[in-house]
Amino acid sequence: MLSTILSGFYERDLQKLIEEVRLFKHEENLWKTAGTVKNSCGNLVLHILGGTNFLIGATLAGTGYIRDRDAEFTTKGVKREVLITRLEALAQLVGKTVGSLSPEQLEAAYPREFDGAQRSVAYVLTQLALHLNYHLGQVNYLRRVLE
User: Fold this and answer.
1) Among 100, 114, 125, 142, which is 20 to 30 Å from 24 by CA?
2) Cβ density class 94-120: b for 16+ within 10 Å, e for less
3) Which long-range contacts link 3-9 to residues 24+ away (Cβ below 8 Å)?
4) For 127, phi and psi rounded to 5 degrees?
5) How many angstroms from the chain centroid is the CA of residue 64?
C-alpha cells in the first residue's frame, strides 16, 4: 500500500538525517556555510522540521503546530541533541500519521492549496518525501565540505 511505502521512505530519510547531524565532528559546523551555499545544515534541519510538522503534523494529524518559516532560516545555534530529539519525534509522528492512511484518504483532497493548486494527499506526501530527500543530500554534501 502506498501509505506503507511513503511511511518507509520518511522513516529511512529522517533516520539518515539524524545520522548526518550526529556525524558532525564539530557541532558549531551545523550552523556554517561554504562558498555560495546560503543555508546551513542546521537551518535545513529546522526547515524540514517546520515544514513537515506543519504539512503533515498540523494539517493531517491535527497537532496544532504553528509554523514560523522565516525562523527556520534565521535561527542559529540550536544544540545538536535538541535537533536530534525533534527529528526523532517527527519520525514517530510521520510514521504513525502517514502509515495509517487508507487508499481513500490518500486519494482525497489535501486540506490546503499546495503548489498553487488543489492536490491529493498522496501528491503532497510524495512531494514532501522528495523535498526531504533533496535537503538530506544537501546536508550530506555540506557536512563533508565543512568537516
Assistant:
1) 125
2) bbebbbebeeeebeeebeeebeeeebe
3) 3/98, 3/99, 3/100, 3/101, 3/102, 3/103, 3/105, 3/106, 4/99, 6/98, 6/122, 6/125, 6/126, 6/129, 7/94, 7/95, 7/98, 7/99, 9/129, 9/133
4) -60, -40
5) 17
Closest alpha carbon to 54 in 46, 66, 72: 66
Residues in Cβ contact with 58 at an 8 Å cutoff, skipping those fewer than 6 apart: 64, 65, 66, 67
Mean per-residue pLDDT pooled into runs of 10, the chain (147 residues): 96 98 98 96 98 98 98 98 98 98 98 97 98 98 95
